[in-house]
Backbone:
């Protein structure tokens, strides 16, 4: 995968870039039973109130049903095509299994059309295969990591992401996540071998506001530009700095800090918190 830059034919094109999509299979189609209509919410809940700001519009999309569980043990699957998915940053691979079933899986770096993928504890630790941590060699890069057996992958599902299996003892495996957090997961939980592809996604420059609108993201208005009825930073004569530490429209501090619940049950599985850019090494509570 690479990045293609546009010629500066307009201010919006200058410095803009886009993926070259070289890894995608030409002419590939999405099976009808593997896509569903995706309804837009505009950031509103079932009462019609905005609970997630700056959302609305955007291009129409269809959701691809992804196999995060990878539970077809012992049945080989052939990668038919590598496809674009508008709902995620990584690519997806369409797999034809020997029993006739078709499924989408997340496409790791190095997985090619025609390759064979397997799932289950007897599978070899090769790129694209899904194994429980008890069968994964130490030091292996993995993605699509389960936190509870059979619930499907929850961690490391975006472009270029992967975790590393660093230790294993009895019923637990120890992994290092991309954030630097070190975490324990049950060794019977599954993960897929390899790092996800499309790692250059983070280097794409949108170039103009319209491309954000195509993604369904609306403009973000500064609180100091609002009236006092609309935001805690609003109002005042002339331009102001807001008069207080920055907060959200509801008054919650926006300068970071601890937002994790002090007695969250999953904290028992975190051996070392990530490093924060603002606060340094976070502490366990």
Residues:
């Amino acid at each position: 995968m690479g990045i293609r830059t546009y010629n500066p034919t307009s201010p919006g094109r200058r410095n803009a870039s886009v993926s070259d999509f070289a890894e995608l299979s030409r002419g590939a189609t999405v099976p009808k039973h593997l896509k569903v209509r995706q309804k837009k919410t505009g950031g509103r809940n079932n009462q019609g109130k905005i609970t997630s700001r700056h959302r609305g519009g955007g291009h129409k999309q269809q959701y691809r049903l992804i196999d995060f569980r990878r539970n077809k043990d012992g049945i080989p699957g052939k990668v038919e095509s590598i496809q674009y998915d508008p709902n995620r940053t990584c690519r997806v691979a369409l797999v034809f299994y020997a029993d006739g079933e078709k499924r989408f899986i997340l496409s790791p770096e190095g997985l090619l059309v025609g390759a064979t993928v397997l799932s289950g504890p007897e599978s070899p630790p090769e790129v694209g295969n899904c194994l429980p941590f008890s069968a994964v060699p130490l030091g292996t890069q993995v993605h699509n990591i389960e936190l509870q057996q059979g619930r499907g992958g929850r961690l490391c599902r975006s472009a270029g992401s992967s975790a590393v299996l660093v230790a294993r003892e009895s019923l637990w495996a120890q992994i290092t996540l991309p954030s630097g957090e070190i975490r324990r997961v049950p060794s019977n939980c599954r993960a897929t071998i390899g790092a996800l592809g499309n790692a250059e996604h983070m280097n794409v420059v949108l170039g103009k506001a319209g491309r954000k609108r195509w993604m369904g993201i609306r403009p973000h208005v500064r609180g100091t530009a609002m009236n006092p009825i609309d935001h805690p930073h609003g109002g005042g004569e002339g331009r102001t700095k807001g008069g207080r530490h920055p907060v959200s429209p509801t008054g919650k501090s926006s300068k970071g800090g601890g937002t994790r619940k002090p007695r969250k049950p999953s904290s028992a599985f975190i051996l070392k918190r990530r490093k924060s850019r603002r606060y340094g090494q976070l502490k366990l509570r």
The longest helix spans residues 209-214. The radius of gyration is 22 Å. Helices lie at 209-214. The chain is about 0% helix and 25% strand.
